[in-house]
């Protein structure tokens, strides 16, 4: 998944997608341990996609926090 695709998603969509991908990762790990997984590179790709989505969520949290802090500082100056 490309980063621009992730950034286009809403926060709720991201949270839901992270949960789905984490369940998918558990299933892939289980298949890998049972020697049923043929494409082991998929584990790496899923882990990276989860990391990208969590990074975008964190960026949004920090941006919202920064905006809230700037609003409170502006209100204190008045």
TrEMBL record:
Swiss-Prot/TrEMBL keywords: Ribonucleoprotein, Ribosomal protein
SUPFAM superfamilies listed in its UniProt record: Ribosomal protein L29 (L29p)
An individual GO BP term: translation
Coiled-coil ranges from the UniProt annotation: none
Gene Ontology MF terms in the entry: structural constituent of ribosome
Pfam families named in the record: Ribosomal_L29
GO cellular component, one term: cytosolic large ribosomal subunit
Keyword Protease: no
Record has Ribonucleoprotein as a keyword: yes
Protein family per UniProt: Belongs to the universal ribosomal protein uL29 family.
PANTHER family in alphabetical order: 60S RIBOSOMAL PROTEIN L35/50S RIBOSOMAL PROTEIN L29 (PTHR10916), LARGE RIBOSOMAL SUBUNIT PROTEIN UL29C (PTHR10916:SF0)
Name under which the protein is recorded: Large ribosomal subunit protein uL29
């Amino acid at each position: 998944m490309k980063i621009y695709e992730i950034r286009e998603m809403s926060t709720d969509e991201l949270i839901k997608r992270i949960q789905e991908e984490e369940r998918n990762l558990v299933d892939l790990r289980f298949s890998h341990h049972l020697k049923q997984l043929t494409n082991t590179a998929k584990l790496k790709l899923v882990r990276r996609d989860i990391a990208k989505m969590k990074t975008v969520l964190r960026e949004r949290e920090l941006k919202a926090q920064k905006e809230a802090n700037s609003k409170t500082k502006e209100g204190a100056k008045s």
